[in-house]
Amino acid sequence: MDLRNIAIIAHVDHGKTTLVDELLKQSGAFRENQAVAERAMDSNDLERERGITILAKCTSVEWKGTRINIVDTPGHADFGGEVERILSMVDGVVLLVDAAEGPMPQTKFVTSKALALGLRPIVVLNKVDKPDAEPDRALDECFDLFANLGADDDQLDFPSMYASGRSGWADMELDGPRENLDALFDMVVKHVPAPKQIAQMKEPFRMLATTLGADPFMGRILTGRVESGTLKIGESLKALSREGELIENFRATKILAFRGLSQQPIEIAEAGDIVTIAGMTKATVADSLVDTSVTEALPAQPIDPPTITVTFGINDSPLAGRDGKKVQSRVIRDRLMKESELNVAIEVTDTPGGEAFEVAGRGELQMGVLIENMRREGFELSISRPQVLFTEENGQRMEPVEEATIDVDDEYSGVVIEKLTGNRKGELVEMKPAGAGKTRIIAHVPSRGLIGYHGEFLTDTRGTGVLNRVFHGWTPHKGSIPGRRAGVLISMENGQSVAYALWNLEERGKMFIGAQADIYQGMIIGEHSRENDLEVNPLKGKKLTNVRASGTDDAVRLTTPVTLSLEEAIAYINDDELVEVTPTSIRLRKRYLDPHERKRMAKANQ
């Protein structure tokens, strides 16, 4: 059967997974009476809850005698490790762009990776039926983006289409029939080249592993594209590292291919197809699975280095062990090591003493997703404030810089620019009207300056602003950046909070807890209205007497406490504070820093 391998790339919420749903339906991948969940490719619970794609996943459809393997890629740069591996399996990309918003930062990130691999994109302008859609402007911005990313003449001569993924149509013309996705299928078959590996069918078997998984029946499984040759079940293979060193010899006990949303066993894997192989025990991502006669490993795409690090430790608060079942450091370590094996963008190292672990990754969202998965598995953790990783280049200290793309109402643009270019040491790159009374601001800001900024940004823009950020590069160290200005309210007692005490404390600042909450000495219960920390007693009840007076017996009405999400809590804390994470609670607390650790952190923030 004729074969095509494509990846669909887009910014968060531009309709990528919804379009794949329609491609599967219209290609006949589902039975007519089959119950299929919306956004079928988002199989992970967190993906469904947050409406984002976290893990790259494959599917397959048949169209007029051609099998099309489709890879759904994450739209967020924090999960870029998935993108960089997955693009090596495909021969073309479909770039989905919101016709109203145009190309956004995550689009730029993934597209730059695709263009660097020589892939020629098909641009699909999605959501053209929205009232604020401007497809012509979005198309011009796509061309400018490709030119800025160094696309060659062939890549700049890209085909474009107009579509509505939710309505299930795509046409070459804006005023086309708007009936189905046939035009998109035909464009993929015509425009995307067949895998060049098909011509290498008679050579020895070679496959580069791009994603790692585990199955309760088959054990360790690796997925990738067959670069040459064929493989039958039961044949002997060997796994080679990137340097060509032998890792293990094994037999292919199972070969699976993608057929619709499921994987089906096949007898033989052929060059060019994307398959999953079982049977190995040690091989992992970026290793080469090859015939026993092959001695050289396949070249593996390098992965961008991590930019932030977070310390994962045991939960040693007075409330430890009440909610979670997995609280020991060795259990936490095993889970983190397993994660680093599955996700090449994460690195885990032990700290002196072995009670805590340094986890390095791409961004706060990636860390938040890992912590959220762990707390749902029953872990209790204490999490430190994210620290930026620095590098040395020609004897100069370098730090990561992110490109922040911000859409705000015109009236708030001044305060946003002031915050970014002032204390946060950002540089304004571009500022232009975005229509509908909004301004688009593009700035290059050190990663240190953006940690903890999102909550402040939403306050400054009254919740109407949209902030997108993506790793831009490295720049010479820009000096000290001040952290959170406000102090915190710290409990000086153990017990359960009393409504009367919290009511009297409201004039001191915003509360993070309500009445009858379990608290302990050193726990952060709110944000102080001033810059210093303040110890308070949230257990102090009202003195009861026999005297009653109309002016002294007011009803206690508490203001609704501020509830911080996991990512907000991690970004909110200072260096001498921790986030306590359990399956049911997220708490903030102070921690003791010995003089050496305090000195090290002060040096890192200078």
Give the topology.
Blueprint: E1 2-10, H1 16-26, H2 45-50, E2 57-63, E3 66-72, H3 80-86, E4 92-98, H4 105-116, E5 121-126, H5 135-148, H6 153-156, E6 160-164, E7 169-171, H7 182-191, E8 206-215, E9 219-228, E10 230-232, E11 236-240, E12 246-251, E13 254-259, E14 262-265, E15 268-270, E16 274-278, E17 288-291, E18 308-313, H8 329-342, E19 347-350, E20 356-361, H9 364-376, E21 381-383, E22 387-388, E23 391-393, E24 396-409, H10 413-421, E25 427-435, E26 438-446, H11 447-450, H12 453-460, E27 466-476, E28 488-491, E29 495-496, H13 499-505, E30 509-511, E31 518-519, E32 523-528, E33 534-536, H14 566-572, E34 577-581, E35 586-590, H15 595-604
Parallel strand pairs: 1-3, 1-4, 4-5, 5-6, 28-33
Antiparallel strand pairs: 2-3, 6-7, 8-9, 8-17, 9-16, 10-15, 11-12, 11-17, 13-14, 13-16, 18-20, 18-21, 18-22, 19-20, 21-34, 23-24, 24-26, 24-27, 25-26, 28-32, 29-31, 30-32, 32-35, 34-35
Helix pairs in contact: 9-14
Please give a structural write-up:
With 606 residues, the protein is α+β, with helices and mostly antiparallel strands. The protein folds into four domains: 192 residues, Rossmann fold; 94 residues, Translation factors (Elongation Factor Tu (Ef-tu), domain 3, Beta Barrel), CATH 2.40.30; 86 residues, Alpha-Beta Plaits; 86 residues, OB fold (Dihydrolipoamide Acetyltransferase, E2P) (Beta Barrel). Helix content is 22%, strand content 33%. The chain contains 15 helices and 35 strands. The strands form six sheets. Strands 18, 19, 20, 21, 22, 28, 30, 32, 33, 34 and 35 form an eleven-stranded mixed beta sheet that branches. It has an eight-stranded antiparallel beta sheet with strand order 12-11-17-8-9-16-13-14. A seven-stranded mixed beta sheet has the order 2-3-1-4-5-6-7, sandwiched between helices. Strand 2 and strand 3 form a beta hairpin. Helix 9 crosses helix 14. It starts with a strand and ends with a helix.
